[in-house]
Amino acid sequence: MLSIYGHQQIMYTKTLHWSVWLSSVVVTATIVVGWWTVAGSDSALPANASVVNSHEVKVVELRGVWSGYRVEPDWDAAMQKLSAANFNAVFPYICSPGIAYYHSQVLPISQFAQQHNYLTEAVAAGHKYHVAVHARILTLEMLFAAEQTKSAFAAAGRLMINSQGKTAPWLCPTDPRNRQLLGRIISEMVTSYDIDGLQFDYLRYPGRNYCLCQQCRRQFAADTGAQISQWPQDVLPGGPYATQFNGWRQQQLTVLLSQLVATARAVRPDIVISAAVFPRWEEHSERFGQDAAKWVELGLLDFVAPMNYTTDRLDFATWLLTQRKAIGSRIPLVVGMGPFSDACQFDGPEQLAEQIQIARSFGAGGFIIFKYTEQFAREYLPYLAEEATATLANP
Q: pTM to 2 decimals?
């Protein structure tokens, strides 16, 4: 079995009793010292758990943080703090299709990375403190790319266009030139850097009315045989091809992901591959073309990380239940939590500790927190080290 956690197991130090009622289904979990004990349906068990007896199950757990390309004061200090708090993974944003924060031969290098190879620094510190480094690529959005770079892509017709004819700084996933570029980025990253994993973020469309460029028009007609008389009206909501076009959009992202996964695995068969995805899978597959359930079904990912950013307990539990149902026993569900996200703001580390315990009660394979900041290191890590991550994930 491929380990995504560095062969780590988890034991807990306090007992938690928690229940959620959803659609007449009750999920009850009891976490006790040394073991994960689950009362209720077998579907609540982690996919990678090995049964010790009818009641006790040993599991592994990924405990991670998302971060920027650099952290304060530096990667060595951050990794030391994470390791001391029994975290075992970090997911630094390291590039978009228009800029790199490592010494790339494929992408323009950020001015902030001229004197620092942040990916090299993160990997070295991670290995020193036994924290896995999963390089995170913003797959389609050209975030922080220079205006000159974005303008060149727009002039070449490689960016997404919406129903009003406006260009967005996102790569069109249908364009073969963009697929080739992304393949070169992935190949360079897994060949040149001893990363433990690779995470695809922003692998989606920015909205329902993207992409409507001429490349997409031609390819959609060629793939489906659709007789388009009015573009883009025919493929927008209410148009005769709206449903078919939305399914085709989802297929474009799935095909792109499968190509990038194949590229990475050709070089590094052991590389751990994941995706950060939106939480409401059915709705968001329609709106953003991101069919996370299909990616899981096709075996493209080693784990999936839904960004369940909310402070609402019912929403959090509802999303978890839906996600676990979609995943089944295929791969681990590693839950994204957002105390410092734009979507929500936590009152303090107690809320985060509660969400971690709730996720565990649903059989999650771990969690990733957005994001590593000085405040997180100062206020949240010490609290978690006394509570939710008090014991080693690899005893």
A: 0.86
Q: What residue has token string 């970090």? A: 90
Question: Rounded to whole angstroms, how far apart are CA atoms 393 and 63?
Answer: 8
**Residue 66: closest CA among 309, 264, 351:** 309
pLDDT tens digit sequence for 3-57: 444 433 333 333 333 333 333 233 333 322 222 223 333 333 333 333 222 222 3
The two tokens of residue 112 are 């902030």
Rounded-to-integer distance, Cα 88 and Cα 30, Å: 24
State the total domains in the chain.
1
Contacts of 5 (CB under 8 A, 6+ apart): 60, 61, 62, 88, 89, 132, 366, 393, 394
Distances 49 to 61, 162, 271, 368 between C-alpha atoms, Å: 10, 45, 21, 19
Q: How confident is the model at residue 394 (pLDDT cuts 50, 70, 90)?
A: low
CATH code of the domain in which 271 resides: 3.20.20.80
| Residue 11 falls inside a structural domain | no
Question: Is the residue at 147 inside a domain?
Answer: yes
Over the stretch 127-177, which tens digit does the pLDDT of each residue have? Answer: 999 999 999 999 999 999 999 999 999 999 999 999 999 999 999 999 999
**Assigned domain for 27 exists:** no
Q: Is residue 250 part of a domain?
A: yes
Which residue segment(s) compose the domain that 105 sits in? Answer: 61-386
